[in-house]
Write a structure and sequence with these properties.
7-stranded parallel β-sheet; alpha/beta; Rossmann fold
Length: about 550
């Protein structure tokens, strides 16, 4: 049998889709290579320094990677690729930060590298002095800064300098939830918890856990809190997510209401466990003003900081995080992709990837729903296409996204899934308002008051409402376990993380057939088609395929 992988000397991997070994090869290379393109027949992956450093941090070795490449490669592996993998894998751990005599020391067995660092103009500002040929004393409070600077010149740092213990907080898990359900941590959740905790030693305490939406990342955060038993700051995307975290903590731990603080636009509470939104942390009256709420990071002696949806962490919070490297830091996300390209900052300031589990693995074990993804392409009417053809690119995308012919497709999907719990998702508020008005459906957008949002979400959970129209405010950290159909009528350009999050809204395990249906409707032969393909890249890497239908095929199949 012909092997499915062709390895090229520029570190790209070409994977043949129609090969019987395609899925096995994809699952083997995904932990250390990034998907770049996924047309019909050949998928292109690239091995990058960051993908290799994350692989090294999560426990993979140079030998593991070469064995996987050798097993699936059709031809001999180019020597330059072997050299690249070996060099980059060896770089992780080549530099270490340790604590000695109350100082932070950068150490390496490579004396030439130490000398290079001592003379690098972008790093010298963080250096106090040379100790000897293998160690450098770092200036106080510049632990995060030097890690950022070193990764930018190609040298990731393994941080073993330890953490402040933080003030104690007695947190334990319930065996039976407040709602009366048995509570146990799933095997893969426990593996993720252990990979971060590392027995409480220096090898743990900072890093990223990557799991699909609906797989229980909140439970992993709670599990870490129960192990460390320390006062904890939890950062979340919005107030609705904040309330959901609080509800989960009350339901599954011994924490009481007076021990959990809410730090949001509505309340400013500091308690042993405090949950704050990214929006309130980055609030300031003017762009030139300081961030008035950054004091929260020093308001208590936190022993653990949890960054929910860490791929959305605002840049200003990164800057503050560089100042608090003595705190344990846990990042939770469904995808390490950041559309702003700051993945290396996540690596150096929050920590490397500690645990990652492919979405399809959880689907096979029924911990998340089996998702069926479809892309329906509709024509742009001639009268609209005339204006489209002479518009600028950004305007073209909006014109294509707001194509009114999408409504008829969405209406048919709603009719076909009339007994389901449906989310209609879109990018443009005017489009969503029009859709909401046309079909007399409730709408949740950024301007919807929090109390009204929570009321509508609760009605959806209880079945009083079967269809919700939602903007991007529902992309993240919203727990709607019974939602099993999502219809995307417009998306955010080529945002891969958004596509993953939108599919994630419907992935929680279902009663009965445990299936979810994700539809994205696009205007064919427009820029929207190209951007939709880019959005799908991450899900393609996870093993999802999109059924492509034009209008005629769709109406035939759904009649």
């Amino acid at each position: 049998m012909t092997k499915p992988l062709i390895i090229q000397s520029d570190n790209t991997l070409l994977l043949e889709v129609n090969n019987p070994e395609f899925e096995n090869a994809r699952d083997s290379i995904s932990p250390f290579a990034e998907l770049e393109k996924s047309p019909e027949h050949i998928h292109t992956y690239r091995i990058t320094p960051l993908s290799l450093w994350n692989a090294a941090a999560s426990g993979l070795t140079y030998k593991d990677i070469i064995e996987k490449l050798t097993f699936f490669s059709r031809y001999e592996i180019p020597q330059v690729v072997i050299a690249t993998v070996k060099e980059q894998m060896n770089r992780y751990g080549l530099l270490k930060l340790i604590k000695k005599n109350n100082g932070i020391i950068l150490v390496s067995r490579d004396t030439i590298l130490i000398n290079e660092i001592l003379n690098h103009k972008k790093i010298t500002e963080f250096i106090d002095k040379k100790i000897d040929d293998t160690s450098i004393l770092i200036k106080a409070n510049f632990r995060g800064h030097i890690k950022q600077a070193l990764i930018k010149i190609g040298f990731p740092v393994e941080d073993l300098a330890g953490y402040e213990e933080g003030d104690p907080c007695s947190i334990s898990l319930r065996e039976t939830t407040l709602k009366g359900h048995p509570f146990t941590i799933r095997d893969y959740q426990q593996s993720a918890i252990n990979s971060f905790y590392k027995g409480g030693g220096l090898g743990g305490g900072s890093g990223i856990i990557v799991l699909p939406c609906g797989a229980g990342k909140t439970i992993i955060g709670i599990g870490e809190m129960a192990l460390y038993k320390t006062e904890t700051l939890i950062l979340v995307t919005n107030t609705v997510a904040l309330r959901q975290w609080k509800e989960e903590l009350l339901d599954k731990t011994n924490l009481t209401d007076h021990m959990i603080g809410e730090f949001s636009g509505e309340k400013k509470e500091i308690k042993p466990v405090t949950i704050a939104t990214y929006n309130i942390l980055t609030y300031r009256k003017k762009k030139t003003d300081p961030f008035v709420h950054f004091e929260i990071f020093n308001s208590k002696n936190w022993g653990l900081i949890i960054y929910d949806e860490v791929h959305l962490l605002p840049a200003p919070v990164f800057r503050m995080t560089s100042e608090i490297q003595s705190k344990r830091r846990l990042g939770l996300t469904a995808t390490l992709i950041r559309e702003d390209g700051m993945e290396s900052d996540v690596f150096s300031l929050i920590g490397p990837k500690k645990f990652d589990l492919p979405w399809k693995v959880l689907e096979k074990t029924s911990w998340i729903a089996k998702a069926i993804c479809s892309e329906i392409r509709v024509e742009l009417p001639d009268d609209i296409r005339a204006g489209y053809s002479v518009s600028r690119d950004r305007e073209k995308f909006r014109i294509a996204s707001e194509n009114f012919r999408k409504y008829k497709i969405a209406e048919k999907i709603i009719e076909y899934h009339k007994s389901s719990n449906i989310l209609i998702i879109g990018q443009y508020i005017s489009q969503l308002k029009e859709f909401s008005k046309k079909f007399k459906l409730p709408l949740i957008s950024g301007s919807t008051p929090v109390a009204e949002r929570e009321n509508l979400y609760q009605k959806f959970r209880t079945g009083e409402i079967k269809i919700l129209v939602v903007s991007k405010v529902a992309n993240f950290s919203i727990d709607l376990p019974d939602a099993n159909v999502a219809v995307q009528i417009s998306g955010t350009f080529g945002s891969r993380q958004e596509e993953a999050q939108r599919l994630g809204r419907i992935l929680r395990p279902k009663r009965g057939e445990n299936k979810a249906y994700f539809y994205t409707i696009i205007s064919s032969n427009t820029v929207e088609e190209k951007f939709a393909h880019n959005r799908q890249l991450f899900l393609t890497e996870q093993g999802y395929t999109y059924i492509i239908l034009n209008e005629d095929m769709f109406f035939k199949d759904f009649s």
